[in-house]
Amino acid sequence: ETGVTQSPTHLIKTRGQQVTLRCSSQSGHNTVSWYQQALGQGPQFIFQYYREEENGRGNFPPRFSGLQFPNYSSELNVNALELDDSALYLCASSLVGREGLYNEQFFGPGTRLTVL
Amino acid sequence: AQSVAQPEDQVNVAEGNPLTVKCTYSVSGNPYLFWYVQYPNRGLQFLLKYITGDNLVKGSYGFEAEFNKSQTSFHLKKPSALVSDSALYFCAVRAYTGGFKTIFGAGTRLFVKA
Questions:
Q1: I want to staple B6 with a disulfide (CB 3.0 to 4.6 A). Which of A40, B40, B98, B105 is the partner?
Q2: Are the beta carbons of A44 and A32 closer than 8 angstroms?
């Protein structure tokens, strides 16, 4: 086990709704990243937070937003859900220096989101 | 543009034989390369990484990977495959281009037959 937990495990929403997914990082980790993994594909990088500030973002629209809290927890918020948002959402934490590049990530088990 | 390619969707190997899972990358600047494994109903697990130094890096469960800068490759290898190695393997590169990004390959499914 990596020490990274996510909730809920599964979630069903309808198109147009908003959703919040939660992640608890491994203790002491200062960086959290969120990924979207569609069935049969590799994880797609959504964004990364370092010490509560976003410091990297992939090719996702602004309706995907996040927060990182001082207690190592974080949230992924998705507004105006679309059918294509159905996927497994993964969070990953790591302990990195200011450069942010050197260390491996520890992944949570994911939240399976279904948008109907 | 930054990218990671895993040219094989699936690799089949007999138990006890050596295995190779291929990965090539395209990134500006120095690459920071990783391999992760995903077992059914379990999260992604870190296997090994290349940051700098020796081109041959050793990781968990007897896996190793060879960094080849001229061929922009980072192939995953194991001298003797086990049935329990059967899983989905992902190559990833982390880089900074105006912000931090991590790019994963599409994954290679490894089947090890007894």
A1: B105
A2: no
Torsions phi, psi for B85 (to 5 deg): -80, -10
Cβ contact, residue pair A56, B46, below 8 Å? no
Interface test with B, best of A101, A102, A111 (most B CBs within 10 A): A101
Q: Inspect the interface and report whether the beta carbons of A104 and B101 lie closer than 8 Å.
A: no
Residue position matching structure tokens 């989905």: B88
Q: Classify A20 as helix, strand or coil.
A: strand
Cα-Cα-Cα-Cα torsion B100, B104, B105, B111, nearest 10 degrees, comes to 160
> Residue A96: what pLDDT?
79
Q: Which chain B residues touch A57 with a CB distance below 8 Å?
A: 99, 101
As a whole number of angstroms, the distance between CA A80 and CA B16 comes to 51
Tell me, what's the pLDDT at A99?
A: 59
Question: Residue A7 is encoded by which pair of tokens?
Answer: 């909730």
- What's the CA dihedral at B7, B11, B17, B23 to 10 degrees? 20
Report how many helices (DSSP H) and strands (DSSP E) chain A contains, helices first. Answer: 0, 11
Q: What is the pLDDT of residue A71?
A: 83
Cα–Cα dist B113/B34, whole Å: 26
Evaluate the omega torsion of the peptide bond into residue A8 and state whether it is cis, within 30 degrees of 0: yes
Task: Say yes or no for a CB contact (<8 Å) between A33 and B102.
Answer: yes
